[in-house]
Amino acid sequence: MSFELMIALSVGAAMFGTGLYGALSQTNLVMIIMGVELVLAAALVNLVAFWRYLHPDEPAAQMFVLIIMAVMAVEMTVGFGIAIARFRSRGSVEMEEARELKG
Amino acid sequence: MTIQMFFLAFFGGAAVWFGIVVFRTHSMVRSALALLFSQTAVGLMFLAMQAEFLGVLQIMMMATEMSVMAIFMVMFMMDPGGMGAMEMTHQKRLSLWAGGLGVVAALAAIWLANWGPAVAEVPSAAEQTADLGRELLGRSMFIFQSAGLTILTAMVAATMVAIAPQKERPE
Q1: Domain boundary among B50, B66, B81
Q2: Would you call A91 and B19 a contact, using CB atoms and an 8 Å cutoff?
Q3: How far does Cα A63 stand from its chain's mean position?
């Protein structure tokens, strides 16, 4: 067992919890996106730690990191597209005022 | 304690601390900067784990992404400077429980699982980058191209959503 791996994974766990708290507790769309970014950053830390300490000869593990980075970019793009549309139509990106999205 | 362990713990602590600051400050600009520092600390963790290419990529990408985010926050927030100390949270108790349970469950899985022995040696930085390039342009090319196409589609779709004609805003 490697303590370096444990430290990295524990940091990932703490970032995941912080991001989950932020995504659930914030009322503003941009802040919710920030919470999701933290959760995805936690996934990045875990992937790099697994690559480094368990499979350093496997470049596919690094490829997964690039895919998660692409997911982060897509999440921000879509999130801000929705934010702009919402702001133009309602003048606010407060999710408390978006209850009609429930259907 | 090895040097690598020290730097991992130091940058990891910084990443978590700045992550917490994101949701503790009332100023949105400070929030964006805290997230930038948190993501930079994650990039520095990558460097400490000898993933040079990914570390530098993470720092460069997040610096740009968080700068864009800061601009959006100033544009959209009612009180971007946080001078009014507005309350912008809801279901705090539920969120704290969910976050706390998530951390405890993840820590339990991490510390109870048998991960096997760690590998001491890693390929050199040049070798890693060459291997990653061969992986991206070989076996994983379809996935890599799909990711690029997905980003392009998201950019076009987000632009279309953002510039679509809107109804008159209700006063």
Answers
A1: B81
A2: no
A3: 17
What pLDDT is stored for residue B92 in this prediction? 85
Distance from the Cα of A35 to chain B's closest Cα (Å) equals: 9
Q: What does the DSSP 8-state code read for residue A94?
A: B
pLDDT of residue B78: 67
**Rounded average pLDDT over B140-164:** 89
Kindly report the CATH number assigned to the domain that includes residue A26: 1.10.287.3510
Is residue B101 within 8 Å of residue A31, measured between CB atoms? Answer: no
In chain A, the number of structural domains is 1
Name the residue range of residue A7's domain.
3-102
Same domain for B147 and B75: no
Q: Is A33 on the interface with B (CB under 8 A)?
A: yes
Number of domains composing chain B: 2
Instruction: Please compute the mean of the pLDDT values over residues B111-115 and round it to a whole number.
Output: 89
Residues whose CB is less than 8 angstroms from the CB of residue B91 and which lie 6 or more positions away in sequence, other chains included? A24, A25
List pLDDT tens digits, range A67-93. 999 999 899 888 888 888 888 887 878
Test mutation, B28, B75, B161, B171, chain A, max A CBs within 10 A: B161
B16, closest residue in chain A (CA to CA): A15
Q: Which residue of B has its CA nearest to A89?
A: B169
The whole-model pTM stands at 0.90
Our CA-based measurement puts residue B144 at a distance from the nearest CA of chain A, in whole angstroms, of 7
For B151, the domain range is 128-162
ipTM, 2 dp: 0.91
Whether A52 sits inside 8 A of B157 (CB atoms) is: no
How far is Cα A32 from Cα B10, in angstroms, rounded to an integer?
Answer: 27
| Cβ–Cβ gap B23/A26 under 8 Å | yes
Q: Mutual orientation of helices A3-25 and B92-112 as an angle, nearest 10°?
A: 160
